[in-house]
Amino acid sequence: MTVERLQFFDSNANVGKIGYKHRLQMWRTEDLLAEMDRNGIAGALVYHGMAKSHSPVYGNGRLAEELSKSPRLFGCLAALPDQLGDFPSPSAFIAEMKRGGFRAVKLFPKSHQYDPDRRTIGKLLDALERERIPLLVDASEASLSAIAGMAGNNPDLAIVLQGLGWSQERRLFPLLQEHANVRIEFSALQSNAIIEAAYERFGAERLLFGSGMPFKSPGAARALIDYARIPDEAKRRIAGGNLAELLGVSPPEAAIPDQDEVTAHASRGLPIPIPVYDSHTHLIEDGGGTGSGFPMLQGDIDSMIALYRTIGIRKMSIAPWAGINGGDSEAGNEIAEKAILKYPSEVEGYVVIDPNYTDDVEREARKWHVEKGFKGMKPYFYLSRIPYTDPIYEPWWKIGDAKRLYALVDPAGQSDGAYIAQIEELAERYPNVAIFMDHAARSFEIAELYAKAAKKHTNIYLQLTYTTVPLGSIEYLVREVGAGKVLFGTDSPMRDPRPQVGWLAYAHLSLEDKKAVFGGNMKRIWDRTV
């Protein structure tokens, strides 16, 4: 638990234009600085977007203008191999860096069409190593095997691996174990309990805060650290101390963000003081730590409850992983029932029914909803490959309509058009079922599509939760459909709940809107069931 303020120094941000962006996505440096103020971010290491989307020479040339807008911004240049003559030699490039006061280098091998091997970038890496200039590489730009090659060939070169997604620990941890010069940041690495697991194995010195601004929410990124269950000194290093040491700079201090009581508590790692109800969670059976091959550490009910209490999440609605992607819906329902019996005031359950294994859908629905009182429905196309409007589900939907249940309906690999058509048909046919369109804020493109459907039907709700945590997409949904139709969710323990909490806690919303989205709406839905 954090009470003293942490100074956050962002290792992963960009400024300027960067090829395609949605028209609603912020991009101006002035907007990024305003978000840093709102979220309590002291400084940021930034590259120019066009150094990636167009040309390092072009983008690097425009970076100084953006840096001049604030002493809180520190420059990172993009680089290329020099064999074609379209980029300076390593020695000339580093001389340019020193003249401009730039502090780090970033490579984009995939985007810039080269292999990050010794013959191609060896001279550049040798030069960076000699000058002790840190190197940044996105996981989408080079394989972990390529990163291992760089780290092994240049063991004194500090390499920061950025943007690695959740579920990759079985690949990442051996890399970190073998190469002490590799560091990681957490903007996309949102696996459950990842920060505690990484700290326990590798210490704090190789872990860095990064946000992914302006595309991702900095509040989401900082919440993982603010609520981390590690020593305060480790938090200070991860939040900004490690990056400041790596770059040899110290950004001006930032104030604690006090937009409202929610951010005041979140920024100190204290439990959220308003009711928080998680409308979308999963669960790993007792003694387990894996779901569909993905690491889901501390995903059992005791561990989840313990973490949720530190955050301030008062109740969750669960669909155990064994019953969805695992493939045994009956076992999943039984795991959920066991969790509810153990924590009756903190756990509600989703029923999963797979018609490919269940002979009588109506009998199964009556067993769980009528006899046992489960309030949630979780049909799942990914598991069954059966459209949600298929007649085989009709008895289940009728029971849901009669009992005013709620249904978590994931697109689950279907096309946007097919999914939305099914949602709208279900909303029309079963007006008493509260239908949750899942992952509605995962991109502005999806937010626009789902908002149109939600505005047509009073019983369609839009649920948050996704690793992408787009900056501004929650605010867009609230503007479009109203705070009363947006639901907080985490997808825990598939992903860690803390970034999902931070995404909403720091959203540019009124306190009343946050109260509705964090828990008020879900409580109303629970209370209306019969």
From TrEMBL:
<feature type="domain" description="Amidohydrolase-related">
    <location>
        <begin position="329"/>
        <end position="527"/>
    </location>
</feature>
<dbReference type="Pfam" id="PF04909">
    <property type="entry name" value="Amidohydro_2"/>
</dbReference>
<dbReference type="InterPro" id="IPR032466">
    <property type="entry name" value="Metal_Hydrolase"/>
</dbReference>
<dbReference type="GO" id="GO:0016787">
    <property type="term" value="F:hydrolase activity"/>
</dbReference>
<dbReference type="InterPro" id="IPR006680">
    <property type="entry name" value="Amidohydro-rel"/>
</dbReference>
<feature type="domain" description="Amidohydrolase-related">
    <location>
        <begin position="63"/>
        <end position="248"/>
    </location>
</feature>
<protein>
    <recommendedName>
        <fullName>Amidohydrolase-related domain-containing protein</fullName>
    </recommendedName>
</protein>
<dbReference type="GO" id="GO:0016831">
    <property type="term" value="F:carboxy-lyase activity"/>
</dbReference>
<keyword id="KW-0456">Lyase</keyword>
<dbReference type="InterPro" id="IPR032465">
    <property type="entry name" value="ACMSD"/>
</dbReference>
